[in-house]
Each structure stands twice: as C-alpha cells, then as structure tokens.
Amino acid sequence: MHITCLLAATDILVTKARDQWCGTLIVLFQPAEERGTGALAMIADGLSNKIPKPDYLFGQHIVANLPAGMIGLRNDTIMAGAESMRCKIHGRGGHASQPHRLIDAGVLAANCVIRLQQIVSRELAPSETAVVTAVPLSAAAAENIIPNDLELGIDIRFVTSSTRDQLLKSIYRIINAECQASNAPQPPEFTTTRRFPLTINDLKTTNLLKGGFAEHFGPMFNPEITVSTIAEDFPYLAQGQPYVFWHLGCSDSTTFDLEGRHDSDLPPVPMNHSSGFKPLIQPTLRAGIEALLIAALTCFRRPLVPSL
C-alpha cells in the first residue's frame, strides 16, 4: 500500500501536474520500520549527503482502526514513543518432580509479568497514556524440565519522555525485587532491542495541510484523531526539520467493528500485523495517493519567479 501510493503520487506530480508546482521533490522508500531500524540505517548510510536538506517531510501509514479511505491527522503528538527489551532471569533448573531443589525461573517470571501489568493502573495517573506488555519467551526443552534461565520480552508505549522514564524505572525495580525475593543466583540482565521516538507533528505545517485535507476529503477527514500507541521511526529522518505524519484508514467498515464495541454484531477488526489483516484496496489506494498529492502541492505551489 505504502509503496504503491508513493509511486503513483510521484508519477502524477512528474507527468501530469508538473506545471502546478516548483521545487525539488525527494521521494524516499524506507525499509525496516517495524523494528525501528530503517530510518537510522538510511541516516548511517549517508542519507544527508545524498539528498538536499528538505524544508518539509511528509509520511503516511495505513491503520486498521479507521475506515478505508479516511485520513486521520492531529496537531502535536500523533503517535507514541516505544521501547522494547529482553530481560534474562536466572534460576536454578532441574527436574519438575523436585521443585524444592530448584529456583524456578518460570514462577519468578510469572510473578514479574503480573506485577509489570500493574504499573500503568497503579503507578501512573489515569490521564497518562501508556502501555506495558510483558511476554515470557520460550525456554523449556521438555514438559518436565525446569530451565536454568528464562527470557521476558518487554514492550512499553508512552506519549511523554517523563512517562517513559517512570515506566523503565518501575520495570527495573520490580524485576530486580522479584529476583531478590526468589533468591535468584544472579541479578537479571536487561538488553534494549529497539527504540521508537515520539511522532510530533509540526503545528504550522499540520494546520496548513488540515485545510487542504478538509476541503478534499470532507467527512472522510478526521482532523483530531486520538493519539495512537502505535510507534513509528519516521521522525528520525527529519533530523530537526518540520514534518507531518498522518494515518490512512484501510478497513471495510461494513465487515468489521472499527470502534471496538463489546455489543457489536461485527467481529473485531484484524489489526496491523495480525494474521487476518485485510486492507480494502479501494478506496484506500486512491485516498493515499490523493493525500500525498495534496501535501506536496500545498507546499510546492508557489509562483514562479521569471529569470531576469
């Protein structure tokens, strides 16, 4: 969807609308967004030496919780920051028939997971947006074998830097305390696996685009969508320059419950990356192409100055 929309918008700007704009159009296809490594890899590869420094950057991403063809935008923070880690918990393994001779890393990890799930509900103010997810990763070789060690996968989402700091502080405190309470032979080991920055739209440019989007898309434009706890590495590409990022709805509203209502007769929408994820090709593609065109023409449409 992303590649097709950008290819089509570029083709139209160059072949059919070239007389409507002036400037330098830079088109980027970024890999590896899901792991948060693509944008940083492009920068490390010398991106800033290969292209002119842009005045504005625009990006879009399809989302399942908006109806197909709807554009979702908002001023300021539109997407959360995220951080993931692996935590290795040490126990003393052995045979399941003799648990008294062991330090069960599985029970220890289970206690950690229960406590970690209480951080948001018991340590943060109700007005703060945050998510903590803890997933025990596979460790046992057989049903009757208790392993020496076990790894937890931990993912956090936040919309302020202070919330991030508080979440991490609580995670370290809880896991270290549970390991000490279980008499673990070694302290836990934490390894950060990925980081995503907050996606914060430039106020002036966002307001500029809102006018064009509202005029073109009408009721299929939502100018104040809720801050998403999904994260994006696109802001790394900006390197201090103004940017705007928006969401492109892709789900069939007649087939799925996009609002997450418990009383709905429709099944819940299959979210991005799920096995049932099913973007509706049209009007999703058309809206994505048009949104990119509007963004480009809004900033490029300047009077040509004749050469003297």
From TrEMBL:
InterPro entries membership: Amidohydrolase, Bact_exopeptidase_dim_dom, Peptidase_M20, Peptidase_M20_dimer
Entry keyword Hydrolase: yes
All copies of domain Peptidase M20 dimerisation, residue ranges: 81-179
SUPFAM superfamilies: Bacterial exopeptidase dimerisation domain, Zn-dependent exopeptidases
Pfam families: M20_dimer, Peptidase_M20
Alphabetically ordered keywords of this record: Hydrolase
Protein name, per record: Hippurate hydrolase
The species this protein was found in: Capronia epimyces CBS 606.96
